[in-house]
Automatic annotation (TrEMBL):
CC annotations in GO: mitochondrial matrix
Protein name: rRNA adenine N(6)-methyltransferase
Organism the protein comes from: Cyanoderma ruficeps (rufous-capped babbler)
Protein localization: Mitochondrion
Gene Ontology BP term (one): transcription initiation at mitochondrial promoter
Amino acid sequence: MAAPGKVAAFRLPPLPTIGEIIRLFRLKALKQLSQNFLLDLRLTDKIVKQAGELKNAHVCEVGPGPGGITRSILSAGVEQLLLIEKDARFIPGLQMLSEAAPGKVHIVHGDILTYKMEKAFPKHLKKNWEDEPPNIHIIGNLPFSVSTPLIIKWLENVSKRDGPFIYGRTQMTLTFQKEVGERLTANPGSKQRSRLSVMAQHLCTVENCFVIPGQAFVPKPEVDVAVVHFTPLVQPKIQQPFELVEKVVQSVFQFRRKYCFRGIETLFPENGRLKRTEQLMMTANVDPTLRPFQLSMSQFRNLCNAYRKMCDEDPSLFVFNYREELRQKKMTRSLLESTGQPEQTEEENQP
């Protein structure tokens, strides 16, 4: 019995094990959805612990599947738990959990990539961006096929302070393939440094919490799994629109084994490409012979700021698409070859 004046800690009643739930509802992980079940509740407890204090928190769990992490979240004493599950086969098992925690669980059968999270939580939980993070958490054992597009989408939401971040600096605790987790947290100079490293770290504090061996999952994936925690920064390290930062960073890493000069060239049309690339590198004070993975966050910031200035002077620059230019050139070449006409060189195209 709880002591006078204290609320008793929430405890789930006796329930079938996750393995029994899987057998009861004849659940089978679908390879095409890259599903892997985590049955060990000690590991699900450890994942949930990385989110921090969840007592009386509002939590959204992405892709709960048979409900292993769900149980650990409920046992942490949350106020409300929103479950977003795309696979209808898991809904009956989740409803069993909902009945075991009356009034605490709301189940949505839907796709997290399209689900509108702006109205997922009560308005009174909103915090100013400069304040401490709201008492809202996103937790999920993400299918490998959706993890990268989803974190990019959420990083864009962080940048624009919309989606789940309309409530403030909502924290996220998510699983990724170990290699993706290493990219998310890689420092400059590391061979794992990538577009994902820069996009995540310029907007969030990113912590690689621990690694779960693949053999802990059913079926066993070919890779180990990293648990990564994200806390949005009060001020992004690059104060430019998300689309501009993404374009610059993607371009730099397009030729990750070559000098960064080669990738930055792809920001500009063929006519005047060399001159503009040199101008950008000089303005940003970046050594053109550095490899992409060697660039620091401040160098990426300088590149983005310098590119923004060039786009302000010539708005057509931002809409330029290097791959589209290559496609058009290939089509023109094929057309000329089919008609027997010689292809003009760049010099011949100059007025």
